[in-house]
Specification:
homotetramer, Rossmann fold, 7-stranded parallel β-sheet, 16 helices, 44% helix
């Protein structure tokens, strides 16, 4: 079974890499990958390097990301990919194509494949990001072009069925990232400090990831300043990751650069590998910012997450998440809570993750092996 | 109010041209048009000429159609448009963009505009074409990227609401093509015969339009031969229009060319203007083939339509349509019925069209004038 | 040695296919081909089929040709190719890329490869087509981006040296098409008549190929009509090939279709295979029109060529070519001469071809085997 | 006379902006500009802002630059532009298009226009950059597609004539940048210090601009370190500008960031406006690095230039340039010389610039007004 996965960003690749590893090792599959988007961008750290070390056959590298933070950039970059994907799919003639999420690749890949009558398996459909706007539109449009849906939650399945997708195309499998996390080897704080070049051996620290909110691009500088001021005033070390490539990310990066230049308790880590990253989370006091990691991954590590602002609001979450606004008092209170509120910390430790139990990869592989690759897979009925 | 309409094919342009004319004449609107796709193709008759005579400002001509009938062609052509549309929209900064239907432009335009936070009004959403497959996917994906929906039937509105579209973005306005038809001046058979260069002054004739069925590309030759054989054996003149640009159209064109070369009762008309075309329908015995014209336009002219094969099946239709298969006996029977079954012909003449009463343009213009162009228009909520 | 040849049109592929066959058979080379342009176009007969039968690995099929005869079409088609070629070359990492001639692929391929520091071997540089204008510009621009030059004539080498190209990058090898022709098996007129479906067993016939003259697009209809009228009045059968894809070709095609519909002595052959084509030439009374075939290939077959109009004027040619204008009297005189002027026919038969002796392939293969693939090949000096 | 200039980078825009200003003010011309490439890139400082303040009509903004420093990036970016330029030129139908230099836009613009039969005026043809390789290829290829050539030096004219360009298409006009410099208002060191935020009121300083050498990408870090170490050891302040976007620029930027973080005598200025920049040069002790500014602009300001490494070697230059290697001893000697060698400084002050006298704009405008816009301009003859 010839499968091509298309990956456009580290965040989405990391979620599925355990699945990709499994398929790569399994002789049933002829697995290869197409690398594009942020993976090949200098600005986003050329994360293609992480993929190259995996050993997968790279069916094509597609350089499409336009160097601009203007809104027009995303859709031009998207358009640039389409003839490239068509070229690749036409040459490779895969039995199935995998794509994930709600970013540009989700729609460009599913659309290209659907027009060419090649089946597409889409991951993470049926979700709704509050204030996601264009990303919600893209996620649903991608579902309309896809032939198999692998979703995280039962609720996502229901949403896809409302969209007119046939029930037998939809599989609730949990989040594959949990498999990844659960199986990541443990590392000591000592070695971790050495690896990242910043001392966290005996000290509390936060991990901060703030992505831009594209409907609030003009407020990104202020939002980031409030967060960093609150952290500095709370006297806690903080490790910061760069934001994703959405419009507004330059403002956030600028603030990070300014603050880390003057404060010794702040530290930027760029493109950390997964092993170090998961262990950073394991040992952290809390995640902070607005990364989906706080809802999806943190609960299975028993890690609190302080989610600031509108991003992620309204999504299903465990007991570990505190939702607050970009207000200094609220942020400092929350930091205090994750450091010292024993009852809260106990609750976080003992709660189940709503996003799955670490068996997602196994389930998906089984479904791929059983799926019938025939015209019925391609020709979709609309259920109303 | 600065409005740009994007048109990629004659069929869709003809449906909306009455609306475009109205906006062009009305000083409230700064109206212009972007011409692309089949309009600029030699193979499809360079129908941009018809648009140029309208006098609209042509904001850009976008040459994107790849010269192939392979499946890969449609999506490469689609991809070619995106950076071009982005360039145009970025320069023009329109208040609203209009696009229609379920072809490539529907998705490429709505997606481009949505990523650039420019409102899109989409026409003909919520419809379901049986066996439409990729066109259905595209129509729904386009709806997910659009901010205003102008639909033909109440049933289409219900479908869009199931898709999670907010009710106050959806307007049921009927089919604008009916406005067009109702207001087209009448022409005598004599003049008509002269104009088209084929004598139909005193004789019955059919109008045949058969588009390819992309899920049955291999059967197009046979299907077309059966139809033409049946017509010849029925001893009735027939005027034939070329098919659209879907995969399989070459086979149909080849058959048309072969048959018209040897039979004097068959006649091909290419790119006939609207005035002559509507009057051809007005005077015809019946439409035959699988054009949507039989369902949408024919009833308001009291014209029977013989719809052969799977295309158009399952769509809402009036009493004028006979659905049959590609079988010679069925086709000849149907031709006989439209020529001589008085009861049937009476019924056709006296039935209302389910697709509207000729007031669509008026309604749409009123809505455009009242719509609020603010952030609420751009930021869509999902209703579940 | 990993070699990729890029081919965009049948004319250029046919010239080099003997070389490609040789490399494909020789284990020294890892040979593959990229197919693009007119080869994948429906309008130009999908000649990719001829390439597929060769068995070469097809590294990519690149659909780029925009469906228009407007001037803008050629350069958009050219632009469409570049990111596709870059994708292919980046994946394949060839040691050398081959491209030929003066059409769009010549510049798009050589430019893409040169920017990626991959060596390019360009065939047929240094030539000058009178009135070629854009094609001359392209041929020379392609030479500036190429690292090895394989030219037909000593005079072409001199031209490239004037352009600042280093002498040791330039090889005079003759025209590879002559190898092809000389080695084509012989076929009887009887079988030939059967194969093409037109009786030439016992009769004189001309082979007519008229390509558009892009500086005289408005005159193409008249030119073609004069030629066909003259042929009909000369009472000689004529086999006609369709023109290439330059602007103006529609007009020529239209005239061909009109004349062949009414005259039984005219016959169109489309996309004839090489074997039949060469034998058609072998048995013809004369080539007529403005194809380069008359100068390049005809002399090695002892075949007269009547070259009408400005195309090909001023190029090196043998004694077999008659240069005349689009005047009926001149054309009829020339037809008379090639049918009955014994002295002239004797001269044609006994003259050498200025374009080579059939050993080109052998020479090129030897040079490829000896060329040093190092940085010196990439870094060009300008010789003034 | 409708003229469109295309600009892709600040360096080239600054050279021609005096000409553009003149045409914009002159009612004879309908002047507009197309902005693309590095101007629209975040990485290169969105210099489109400087163009917007000019007030020119911006006919289109074309976002094409792919976010990568891999070699493949330049040619993909180039390819992305072509259909966009075609769209613009087709809509605008200019009488003449202006493009300059040897970067991607030079070839993409001239090629697009030439295929569309629109005349192109190319500036700075005929030059040869030692080790320029791909840039030399591009400059000459652009000349082959251009119809008018405006060159700086008599020697460049001779080169173009060797390339087969017709003499009456070539105009030696000097370098327009000299016009710009000569006419820039004078500014005091005090105000200058305030404007740039770095105190140079009473102190010697160098201006350092080092661009990457694309044939030595691996050596960029070492080269930049040697230069900065030498400057620090020479105890002289230094103002540094970021390099251009060639491959290797990341390494240089990294070194700049590291050194300026630790040394107070180094200062980075990004995207300084022309007024401040020219006055920085006027008051500097010397230019240092490898910018063409040292050869082209510095002599008309009586400014010494220390040119380090292979870039610019072999180009015509005045007495103000010292050519040295990336050796600390040589660099320190040169810095010493430009600070204290009175005889050398006297010579620099009193020498003429080989690049013109500040009358270029006037000459070019006159030629544009006199040029005949007819078919002879489009149809080029090759002079051999």
């Amino acid at each position: 079974m010839k499968i091509i996965a298309v990956t456009g960003a580290r965040s989405e690749f990391d979620l599925l890499s355990t699945l990709y590893d499994k398929m790569y090792e399994d002789d049933f599959f002829d697995f290869s990958i197409v690398v594009t988007g942020a993976h090949l961008s200098d600005t986003f750290g050329k994360t293609v390097k992480n993929i190259e070390t995996k050993g997968y056959r790279i069916a094509d590298r597609i350089y499409n990301l336009v160097d601009t933070s203007e809104k027009i950039g995303r859709v031009i970059s998207l358009g640039n990919q389409i003839s490239s994907f068509a070229q690749t799919f036409d040459r490779e003639q895969p039995d199935l194509i995998i794509v994930a999420g709600d970013r540009e690749e989700a729609i460009s890949v599913s659309m290209t494949a659907a027009y060419m009558d090649i089946p597409v398996a889409h991951f993470f459909g049926g979700d709704i990001a509050k204030d996601g706007n264009i990303d919600n539109s893209t996620r649903y449009a991608a579902s309309k072009y896809s032939h198999l849906h692998f979703v995280t939650l039962e609720q996502h399945k229901e949403t896809l069925m409302k969209l007119g997708e046939e029930e037998d195309r939809i599989y609730v499998v949990g989040n594959p990232a949990i498999d990844n996390i659960v199986s990541t080897p443990t590392m000591s704080r000592k070695i971790l400090s050495k690896n990242i070049g910043f001392d966290i051996e005996n000290e509390d620290y936060l991990v901060l990831i703030k992505h831009p909110i594209i409907t609030e691009t003009k407020d990104q500088r202020r939002q980031m300043e409030v967060i960093l001021d609150s952290i500095i005033e709370s006297n806690i070390k903080c490790l910061i990751n760069y934001p994703n490539s959405d419009a507004g990310n330059r403002e956030i990066i600028d603030v990070i650069d300014e603050y880390t230049a003057k404060s010794e308790s702040l530290f930027v880590f760029k493109n950390l590998d997964r092993l170090n990253y998961v262990n950073l989370l394991r040992n952290a006091t809390s995640l902070i910012g607005n990364s989906s990691s706080g809802l999806l991954e943190a609960p299975s590590l028993g890690l609190p997450a302080i989610n600031i602002g509108s991003r992620q609001r309204g999504r299903i979450h465990g007991n570990n998440v505190l939702f607050i606004d970009h207000e200094k008092a609220e942020i400092k209170d929350a930091i205090n809570k994750v450091r010292s509120d024993k009852k809260f910390l106990e609750l976080v430790k003992n709660s189940d993750s709503p996003y799955g139990n670490g068996k997602t990869t196994e389930k998906v592989v089984k479904i791929f092996k059983e799926v019938k690759l025939d015209d019925n897979l391609i020709y979709k009925n609309i259920t109303y």
